[in-house]
Amino acid sequence: KYVSPALAAICLVLFSTCSNAQNDSTKTELSPTEFSTQINTMPDEVLIDVRTPGEFAAGHLQNAKNIDWNGAAFESEVAQLDKEKPLLVYCQSGRRSDAAADKMRAMGFKNVLELDGGFAGWRGAGMPVAGE
After folding, report:
1. Is 11 a catalytic residue?
2. How confident is the model over 11-55, as pLDDT tens digits?
3. Exposure winner among 16, 55, 59, 129, fewest CB in 10 A?
4. If we measure between CA atoms, which residue out of 55, 51, 41 comes closest to residue 132?
5. C-beta of residue 127 within 8 angstroms of C-beta of residue 32
6. What is the pTM of this model?
């Protein structure tokens, strides 16, 4: 069958709009309380602190793995993780984890959740801190 280019273009635009709307509606930034709930209810999650080793040593979330966003090995370390498992990511304020989460999604990770406000927001909400 022949499909006119105009009809094909309209269908493509409609399909793209629907799939983008679905992706945009998925919340990826979680409040400290929501982030804590995810940590406690998702048995297979991987908790990643993308701050520097010095920041990590001064205090971090319990069971977090430190993979420094600014480190030379960031991409190779992340590539070793299971792309099917949920990743919970945070930094100090949210900027580095946002960039890291975008990179992880581009690498094929399906479920990347970020701590809104970062470690500072976590601490400000009175949540538990390890390693202090």
Report:
1. no
2. 444 444 343 333 444 668 999 999 999 999 987 789 999 999 999
3. 16
4. 55
5. yes
6. 0.78
